[in-house]
């Protein structure tokens, strides 16, 4: 399946990006997100209904063999970043945190990601990384607030692969496009979150899914 037809309601074939999120249900996982997209990348966010948690479910879908990522607190400097890219039939992910507008170093902390297999794959046109992000909503200002109504999320996409795709610590080449979007945090909350989070399991390589 071509990237342009993967998510027809969201992934437009123009270069115009959304300025606010909208509801999107992924057919492969059944997870409903508040999502935003442009011609090259999509990010979706799902949260528990109580609005006080530190975890979330995310999905990053991106065109080509380059990397894509999100800044969980808006513009990248000083914010927690999650990036992913394809490596053969697997998806590699990483946490980063930038102190300047330069290649962000890896970030360490109590936060972790665990993939959700049905939404994590690589095919001939794009990759998808769907994950449970535990401990990823922080109180230090580096991420969005789960209790907020609408929060700013940043995104970036590169058409070129990282220097060493097999390594989560590889240098990330400069992005080809980037921006920020307002995400409807209240709309991302669901009573089904616990069921969806239970789908997370250790990663396995999955390639060429339609």
How would you describe the overall organization of this protein?
The chain contains three helices and 13 strands. By secondary structure, it is mostly beta strands. Helices cover 6% and strands 38% of the residues. Strands 1, 2, 3, 4, 8, 9, 10 and 13 form an eight-stranded mixed β-sheet that branches. It has a five-stranded antiparallel β-sheet with strand order 7-6-5-11-12. A hairpin with a 3-residue loop joins strand 9 and strand 10. The longest helix has 5 residues, at 193-197. The N and C termini lie close together (5 Å).
Key features of this structure:
mainly beta; 8-stranded mixed β-sheet; 6% helix; disordered C terminus
Give a concise summary.
The chain is mainly β.
Indicate the structural class: mainly beta
Question: Which band does the percent of strand residues land in?
Answer: 35-45%
Point out poorly predicted stretches.
Answer: 1-16, 205-210
Q: How much is the radius of gyration in Å?
A: 15 Å
Q: What is the rounded distance between the termini? A: 5 Å
Helical residue percent? under 10%
